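Trying the structure run again after the queue cleared.
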Amino acid sequence: MAAPSPVDRRVSGARLRVLLGAWEGRGPAYQALADGVRALVRTGALPLGTRLPGEREVADTLGVSRTTVTAAYDLLRDEGFLVSRRGSGTVTTLPPGAGDRAPATLGTVDDGLVDLSAAAPTAPPQLAEACAAALDQLPRHLDHTGYLPLGLPALRQAVADRYTARGVPTRPDQVLVTTGAQQAIHLLMTTLAGPGDRVVVEHPTYPHAIDAARGAGARPVPVPVGAHGLDVDLLASTVRQTSPRLVYLVPDHHNPTGTSLDLEARARVRDLARRTRTVVVGDETLTDLTLDGPPPRRSRAVPPTTWSCASARPPSPSGAACASAGCARTRTSSAGSRSGARTSTSGRPCSTSSSRPRS
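Done. Tokens:
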């Protein structure tokens, strides 16, 4: 049996009935109920570490006998999808090994196949030309040691201009350029969360964000993303029940589902951040990747507890020639703040920007 899962939230009988939908089918009722709950756990609609309602409540809500619910729970315990212990009730989990993530394998792919193991396309045809253009500008940046801990001034100015154009006045001295989006996420996780803290993430989500949270000693708490995007109702209840140190979201062209939050959902997330004073990290690294249709609509209102990760394509070179050579592929990750501008741990405004794409 899997190790007992920590209890991160609870689900009511009424909510479980909604998630199950039309669960009844042919065969024994307990088997159909177990199949429905198992499917919810596997797809993430019923996140791990969720305390299920008691057998009597489920029986009353679904209109079945308590014996049916008991048999379904027993079957799921035997399979490793539920674990029960005194004081914590019955909690969702996974059988040993079921949640392990296989190491990424990057290599050549046979013709006619699409490799979905990593969001890393081949280099665009403009890359060589961009490298040459950046190399031509290199002499402009050879009149000093090259040590620029905060990033190339021209790039910091470009990032600040972009935020200002979006309605968040930003100065270049409020921008910190990182070596990539992954480093920016790592800085946010290690700055805002620590050992034992909870970090709410979407399920599924960008895997290296989970790695960054775990690297900081924090515990990721998943909230499912379905065909219509993030379950904002479950997000709100999860935040209330777990009091996380931060919430990490990908609101635009979500990785990997491709969904985007609409204006109503964004407004609800902002309101949740204000009411609970929860830090929300909005990773907008993929915002500019709209392939068809209108781009995601975003409000300029920034709640006082929101950090923003955005995407930009600065026209000037970044630090060294190679860092900005692929400007057609550049992604920027930047950290927003509790004050509506950008704030570092020392209290002075800052923004974290990456000059290279992540995969």
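The radius of gyration is 23 Å. Worth checking whether this holds up in the mutant runs.
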